[in-house]
Write a structure and sequence with these properties.
- By secondary structure, the chain is α+β, with helices and mostly antiparallel strands.
- It has three domains: 47 residues, no CATH class; 67 residues, no CATH class; 75 residues, no CATH class.
- 58% of the residues lie in helices and 7% in strands.
- It contains six helices and six strands, in the order ββββββαααααα.
- The strands form two sheets. Strands 1-2-3-6 form a four-stranded antiparallel β-sheet, with no helix packed on it. Strands 4-5 form a two-stranded antiparallel ribbon.
- β4 and β5 form a beta hairpin.
- α3 packs across α4 and α3 runs antiparallel to α5.
- The termini are far apart.
- InterPro entries: PYM1, WIBG_mago-bd, WIBG_N_sf.
- One of its GO terms (molecular function) is RNA binding.
- This is WIBG Mago-binding domain-containing protein.
């Protein structure tokens, strides 16, 4: 007597020790599905035998000749065979669909980090950044000058407003280090404008 496990229509194998398992299988991408133990007493739809009521079949075919019930049983056998084939095809299609899905998911997981790892190359214009920073500093400097004027007129300043006035020289130094004057204009441009203004004054004189 052979000790090889019996395989049911559903693919479940009954081992010699009485336990049942769904054997391990290989996915389309080459990875292996592990063996799954089946609970004792569980019987999938594919392994359930079709109920045959011979008495009803014989009554249905009465008077047609031949052995009563024989034709019905043969038809039921053919129908059962067709049903099993359909179930087997559906099961195979499900397996293929699941395998394709697993492969797609794994591929997506591999591709996603690669895309995330790509740095976003954004070109930064250093001159534009300097101008932007100078604009902010010039605005703060104007606010500090306004507050200083208020203080000189006798207005009381809040502590944070007074702190802004104290930082005026620091703001001017920062603008100077960026190459801008205290008005937030580029030094070269502002000097040129002064020269042009001076020349225009001389011509008028």
């Amino acid at each position: 007597m052979s000790g090889a496990p019996k395989t049911a229509n559903s693919g479940i194998q009954r081992l010699s020790n009485g336990s049942s398992v769904i054997p391990s299988s290989t996915r389309a991408d080459g990875s292996v599905r592990r063996e799954i133990k089946v609970k004792p007493g569980y019987k999938p739809p594919e392994d359930v035998e079709l109920y045959r009521n011979r008495t009803a079949a014989a009554w249905k075919n009465r008077g047609k000749g031949g052995v009563p019930g024989a034709e019905s049983v043969q038809k039921e056998d053919e129908e059962a065979s067709l049903a099993l084939n359909k179930n087997a095809k559906r099961r195979e299609a499900r397996k293929k669909a699941n395998a394709a899905k697993d492969t797609a998911d794994e591929t997506a997981e591999i591709v996603k980090p690669a895309k995330e790892a790509e740095p976003k190359a954004e070109e930064v214009d250093p001159e534009a950044e300097k101008a932007k920073e100078a604009k902010k500093l010039a605005k703060k400097l104007r606010q500090a000058r306004d507050l200083k004027d208020k203080k000189e007129k006798g207005d009381n300043l809040l502590p944070e407003q007074f702190a802004k006035v104290i930082k005026m020289n620091e703001l001017i130094r920062q603008l100077d280090s960026l190459g801008f004057d205290s008005e937030g204009e580029k030094k070269a441009d502002s000097e040129q404008a002064k020269e042009e203004q001076s020349a225009a004054g001389k011509v008028e004189g």
